[in-house]
Design goal:
Shape: globular
Number of strands: 17
Length: 451
């Protein structure tokens, strides 16, 4: 645990890098006041040296420095110490920047001006993340994937254990939100590469023009906009695992380069001439069968056979109904702890709705719904009123293995429809009911925010 600047009873060390001297002074004093050992510098190059000499537990680094780009500095820090958490700070609230640095391995991203409580919370979480993620740490229970007692979950856990002990390439199939990256991380954590970096790249979130640069890096002047040398994900993952999410979205020409690198274990940055040796395990994920993408001309068959040394399929949540309340209970406990609330589970009607809802967003969607419900409920159990209208009134038509086609509604809302329409069918009453439900939801949110 990390409390009042202490990590396991020892004052945690934080390195702050920012070229704004006022910010540096104020942030340094603030952190010292809260019990941390602090070193500060305005120079990214000096910051790299302090990573070795000061040996911090956490780095807070400005994204825009005078002598080096924050993303490049992050890459250099991660190359030296993959497990060292880094929080990027900037005055530019840019979502693309946030996605970029988090994807590169930053723990979090904060924008100026700072909120004191937010700073302390992020630091606490980052330091606890380091304690639980280090391969040699005690009580390393952070697997990033939750297992249940269901047959599918036990089978999945067994497959992970088997393939983790090898250096096989792995394809993970599953819909968005089922936890593909969590499974990939767990394979890495259980493997002989656990002390090496785990680098994730979302192939679907990167433009076709930049995919090659993101994967292999580039040399200065190799193309328009290449203002300096850049290390790619392959180099950052050296000695560890590279996870390529939504691999089917990788441009065809980049697939060709990837195949060559996997076969020869050598790569070149874009615009470079030097061959760089690679020692990387590849895990990829896709929400569509790569064999289908091959027939559609989107994916190279030879690359598919190179990657398909082992495959894992994660079933969608709607096909694992027995797992739904297990996840819901765990998420509710986690969120109540964050919100300092004491909620005693879910009302029976809520459980019925959660179990029968088809969860197109899978586990990720379930967690978001539980977070929202926990915010709206002040005491006792989560009630039906805390669920959004879209969940209550979601038609299950067209979902596999679902024989009914009626709308999922709790008894009190069914009664309202009957009263409004006279025959128990939604009909013209649906728009009016939705309006009433949305107004009630709006009022509950305002009440919660006011409190």
């Amino acid at each position: 645990m990390v409390e009042n600047g202490l990590k396991n009873g020892i004052s945690a060390k934080i390195l702050v890098i920012d070229d704004d001297r006022d910010i540096l002074t104020l942030l340094g004093k603030f952190l010292v006041k809260h019990g941390y050992q602090v070193e500060t510098t305005i120079s990214g190059m000096e910051g790299q040296k302090l990573v070795d000499s000061f040996d911090p537990d956490l780095v807070m680094c400005d994204y825009r420095l005078d002598d080096i780009d924050g993303a490049d500095l992050l890459a250099k820090i991660k190359e030296k110490k993959p497990d060292l958490p880094v929080i990027i700070i900037t005055g530019y609230s840019d979502l693309r920047t946030a996605i970029k640095v988090v994807r590169m391995g930053a723990f979090d991203y904060m924008t100026k001006p700072f909120i004191p409580d937010e700073i302390l919370l992020n630091i606490k979480q980052a330091l606890e993340y380091k304690v639980t993620r280090l391969p040699h740490a005690k009580n390393n229970t952070d697997t990033t994937y939750l297992f249940t007692s269901s047959f599918h979950s036990k089978n999945l856990e067994q497959q992970i254990g088997l393939v983790a002990a090898t250096d096989y390439s792995v394809i993970i199939y599953g819909e968005s939100g089922v936890g593909k990256e969590g499974v990939a991380r767990l394979i890495h954590q259980k493997s002989g590469r656990a002390r090496g970096p785990f680098v994730a790249m979302d192939c679907g979130a990167i433009s076709k023009d930049l995919a090659g640069s993101e994967l292999f890096g580039h040399e200065k002047g190799s193309f328009t906009g290449a203002q300096g040398q850049k290390m790619g994900h392959f180099e950052m993952a050296n000695g560890g695992t590279l996870f390529l999410d939504e691999i089917a979205n990788l441009p065809y020409e980049v697939q060709t380069s990837l195949l060559r690198v996997l076969q020869e274990r050598m790569m070149r940055r874009i615009g470079g001439t030097r061959e760089i040796a690679t020692d990387v395990r590849i895990i990829v994920a896709s929400n569509e069968r790569l064999s289908v993408a091959i027939h559609q001309g989107k994916f190279r068959e030879d690359l598919y056979h190179r990657l398909n040394e082992f495959d894992i399929e994660i079933l969608p949540l709607r096909k694992r109904k027995d797992d739904i309340m297990f996840f819901a209970d765990i998420f509710l406990k986690e969120i109540c702890k964050e919100l300092n609330k004491n909620l005693d589970g879910f009302e029976p009607e809520v459980q019925e709705v959660l179990i029968h809802y088809p969860w197109p967003g899978n586990v990720r969607e379930l967690k978001n719904i539980i977070k929202r419900a926990a915010l709206l409920v002040s005491k006792n159990k989560v009630s039906i009123k805390a669920l959004p209208f879209e969940i209550l009134n979601y038609s299950r038509i067209g979902f596999e293995n679902d024989e009914s086609n009626h709308t999922v509604l709790p008894p009190d809302i069914k009664g309202s429809i009957h009263d409004l329409n006279g025959d128990g069918q939604a009909g013209a009453a649906a728009p009016q009911l939705k309006k009433v439900a949305l107004e009630a939801e709006y009022k509950m949110i305002l009440d919660a925010l006011n409190k």
